[in-house]
Specification:
Length: 527
Amino acid sequence: MLRFHLQVFIYGFRPYHRIMLRGIPGPPRQWLFGNIPETLKEGGIYKTQQVYAQKYGPVFATHQIFQPIVMVESPELARKVLLQNNYRCVFPNLLYGEEAAFEASTYLDTRGDKHRTVRGAWQPFFFSGSLEGFLALMWDAADLLAESVELERKQDKYMDIHGMVQAMTVQVVGTTAFGVHFHTQLADKANKSNSEDVQQLLQAVYDIMAPEAFSFSVYAMFLVLFPFAAPLIKLVAHHFPDKGLHRVRQGRQIVIDIVKKLMADRRLDIENEQRRESKGLQKTRPSFAETTGERRGVAPGSFVDLLVNATDKATGESLSDLERTNQAFVMVMSAYETTANSLAFTLYMLARPENKSKVERLTAEIDAFGRNKVPTFEDLDKFPWLEACLNEGMRVYPPVPTLTREAERSMELGGYHIEKGTMLGVAVFSMHNNPAYWKEPEKYLPERFMEGTPEAAAKPAHGYLPFGEGTRACIGLRFARMEAKLTLIRLFQQFTFELQPGQEVLPLRETITLSAANGVFVKAIPR
Ligand code: HEM
């Protein structure tokens, strides 16, 4: 018992971390709880980072949840962290056995050659040719969104545009990545065929990403307090899960089961096509080119097709089924929520009354293109102001507020020595909103992203990081930008938006991502 007490005391004091972080400024690390109480008091990690950066400067050490982490909050240091280190931090969790193996092979956590293989398997999905092929599907989804907005507008109601945009981005993931229609949008309610599956899927993703997911179980608390007993805690948690742990595990299983089903269906589909082709029979499924004109066409060159055919370049072997399922799982987790959040933040900014002149410039740009025209892939370069509005939205509210890396070797950061293996973080939200780097950061000024303007000249050369940087930067950047641009074009061809009073300050919800906690409520004004 004495030994146990000693271990608790030593862990609470964290001598090893103190040695690793020696000399690096930062908030006092409370015995046992690190900086958790302050994070709770400030209302989020991204908030405490702002407070600490002001107090301690561009390099500071904090104890976020489980781990000590050295944060940087300057464009130059952020670049150094992101370009010199290729691995994201892996935080301790309660997963055990097969679930732990699944997590370890997740794209977001893969390392070295495996990362190159996985990234290589994903890449063709984002080639210009593929993106161009997705345009009609994305436009289709944006069109349904506009129809849904019109339905709500007719009832003269304030609507949660965040929720509606989310339903749209889910549809886009369905058609482009999985070749299925999720029928999530209001104007598409009649097609309910698989909407229950989708509701389940969304709930599951929500459960996995919920803020409580970080402390979802009483076992998590034991893991924080007694990390040296992790194997035992995980074993007990696995066999006797409490309600919180059960919820997250169930969520993961639902997502895995659904993506497995989607892949199996698609595989069968491909086999049937090949069989018909070998017999010289006509295709049952029209090619994408044949469906682009159709309102509800599905792209056969989908992500699932890529996964089914993916091979490991190094070994020539195909990816294991576990790895394929894993990639599809990551696609579900990473592709829709961030895009929906960035659109919702931009729409929020454009609905604020003080930004009326920005909207006028946006509608003028869209009208110059055409109020009833569908843009082609090339046309998308003709909307610099729209793109600037989107960029500025992600500056004020970066959908991923913190980036992480593990120090691959010892390095120097802002005059401090960093030991190999130290967890590093980039305080993106804080940096994007720091007056030391951005003049009047509280103002929504898309001009910052318009070449030749004084606002653009005053912008830092680096330090704008909504998609990260380096070998681990967002692979879906072009896909996301294209989808967001098409959506804004389609919406502002028909409407402008008015913010519901009472949302002058937008409550935020922080998980790995940042989103509007209670939605974004607007009234649509027909143009
Ligand atoms: C506006 C929308 C999006 C934002 C703001 C965003 C942001 C990010 C950020 C910040 C990272 C981490 C970068 C780093 O650590 O340096 C990331 C990684 C990633 N994103 Fe996105 N993302 C968006 C959309 C998408 C979409 C649409 C997809 C897929 C279709 C996607 C797939 C991924 C993947 C797979 C990674 C991991 C890349 C790697 O480790 O190699 N993202 N994203």
